[in-house]
Each structure stands twice: as structure tokens, then as C-alpha cells.
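Supplementary Methods. Inverse-folding protocol.

Structures were first reduced to a C-alpha cell string of length 184. This string, shown here, constituted the complete conditioning input.
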């Protein structure tokens, strides 16, 4: 994972549990029902395209053209699953926590996609915000600004009101990444 771009490392870290679960369950024929349940949950969370690709990978297809139509996040996850099937030592540590500073561009991409009407991104951001809300504290405060960000709010004073410094820096990073995406 060390040779991957930081953004790809962050994506893998964020989805390490899913990646490891898919690879490990696919190696055990007795765990087929658990694997199917894991993939069904991912489909219900809005990852239909990724799950379709993962099923093809698990059925033995390893051609890189298989992942070309996926968005960046799904491509990175699918590649990590392929690498893990080939060499389990490449699997990420599912207990490693994502680096907050690297989360801003990924969150900004999801927010931008949701703002443009991407249904999958809207579903994912809603699910993510719900999980953050349940976590409480700074995460709940971050969850509260996702909808305003999707709706176009960019005023840092308004968005960061009442946040601790770490959460404030994350929101400022998201705003900066959104502004950069808008300029491109």
C-alpha cells in the first residue's frame, strides 16, 4: 500500500474492513453465505456497480478492463480486492484509522457528486452523515454541515461554528477541495 498515492491509501484504509472481509470470506467455501450477505449489504448501501464488479472478480475475472467504468473510489477498492486475492499480505489493516487530513478531498468528491444529483453519492453521504450523527461529539457536528455543503454553503464561519479545531480544519479542507474542483 506504500507505493499507492495518498488518496488511494486513504480510500483503502476507509474500506479496509470490507476489502478484507470479501477476500477472506471468498477463500472459505463454508463462508459463502456470509460473503453473499456482505455483498448484499454493500448493494443496499448503494454500491451496486462495485458489487457487480466484485462478483465478477470472485468468479475469476482479473482483467483490468473490468474496473475501467468504475469511479475512482470503486476502482481502488476493486484493485485492492484483486491484490488481496493474489497476495493476502497486501490486505490493509482493518483496525487502522483513516488520516483526517487526507479525508477532505474524498469527502469533497462525495459532496460534489451528491450536489450534482448522483444518487449513489447522495445515498452514501446520507448514510455516512447518519453514522457520524450516531457517533456524537465532533463527528455529529461534522455530520450537521454535510447537507449545507451539498446545497452550496461555503462560508467557513457559518459551517465551522462550535467545532473543535480538528473538525474545523477538516471542514476547511473540504471547502478548499470543493473550490478546487469547481475551478477545474
Amino acid at each position: 500500500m506504500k507505493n499507492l498515492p495518498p488518496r488511494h491509501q486513504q480510500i483503502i484504509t476507509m474500506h479496509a474492513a470490507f476489502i478484507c472481509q470479501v477476500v477472506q470470506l471468498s477463500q472459505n467455501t463454508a463462508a459463502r453465505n456470509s460473503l453473499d450477505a456482505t455483498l448484499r449489504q454493500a448493494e443496499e448501501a448503494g454500491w451496486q456497480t462495485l458489487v457487480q464488479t466484485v462478483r465478477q472478480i470472485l468468479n475469476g475475472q482479473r482483467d483490468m478492463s473490468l474496473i475501467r467504468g468504475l469511479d475512482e473510489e470503486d476502482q481502488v477498492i476493486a484493485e485492492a480486492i484483486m491484490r488481496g486475492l493474489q497476495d493476502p499480505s497486501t490486505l490493509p489493516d482493518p483496525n487502522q484509522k483513516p488520516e483526517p487530513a487526507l479525508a477532505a478531498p474524498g469527502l469533497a468528491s462525495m459532496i460534489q457528486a451528491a450536489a450534482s444529483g448522483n444518487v449513489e453519492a447522495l445515498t452514501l453521504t446520507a448514510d455516512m452523515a447518519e453514522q457520524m450523527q450516531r457517533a456524537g461529539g465532533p463527528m455529529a457536528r461534522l455530520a450537521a454541515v454535510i447537507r449545507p455543503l451539498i446545497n452550496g454553503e461555503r462560508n467557513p464561519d457559518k459551517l465551522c461554528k462550535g467545532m473543535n479545531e480538528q473538525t474545523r480544519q477538516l471542514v476547511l479542507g473540504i471547502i478548499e477541495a470543493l473550490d478546487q474542483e469547481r475551478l477545474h
